[in-house]
Input
Amino acid sequence: MSSIFQTRRGFFYQDRYAVYIFLSHLLKNDVKEFFTDFPLQGQKSIDVRLIDSQNIEKVFEVKTGEVFKLDLNAEIRDAVMDLYKYQKGKNNILPGLIVSRGLKPRISTYWDKIKGIQGYKRIAGEAKNSLDWLKKDLNDSSLTDKELFDFSKILNLDDFDNDIKNNEHDEHCDADGKVIDLIRDIGNSIGVNAMEAEYHPRILMNDILFLCREYAGTATNLYANILDAITAYFARRIFLDKRFVPDGNNRDEAFREITDEVKNEFRIKLGILTDTQTQLANNVSEGRKIKKL
Output
């Protein structure tokens, strides 16, 4: 496997997780801002950055092991330190280190030490031993026990599904399956269930993945862009189901009306409303809902 392929696969996995975390928060109406490869000073970046409805900043570093150096611990150490430095001195940040399921066994020492610390309420016994190990490995003399303890307690250390199929008969890999399930959940929430076979959720997943790559590293808030893509996707499914004849202006007007109805359903069923949607929602009566398909 070439290094170029490994690098691209690593970025693609990162974007998959970004789509997953956005959609899972959107279903709870718990996202206000969303960024991929959010740029920092010194040519560094945060893989995924999300501001939730309570103005809590959730930042994630996503690691697959695809492009790791021979020293695997060095890569994990760098990710942990980047997250630590980013959240230091701030009260509203929840850092997360996400690893692919296949990578988890290879970082078992880090995993066990951090998870072990999270089970303690104070620095003592095994918690102190784990802190000593981490401090030595992180190799930062400025770190105090309390700083590292507090950081470890809030660090969301988790693994995410694999990005390859389990066997040749699978329709998609587990990671894609998680995203597709969320898209179906959104459709169910707003009452759009028809035409999935003709307009598969994978189409929307790929549209959002494209946006994540297109605006990576630009510090562009992708919330409105992604919501527009989601709205257009479900509007097209309704449009196809109603079998509109492509006759120019009438077709375009019908599609605009359906799009407005989808936006209204987002407002009514999920409480989702952006500034750009406000006027559109006001033009759609409260009782006008998408007809059962």
Remarks:
- Confidence is low (pLDDT under 50) at residues 277-293.
- The chain has two domains: 3-160, 174-282.
- The radius of gyration is 22 Å.
- The chain is about 55% helix and 10% strand.
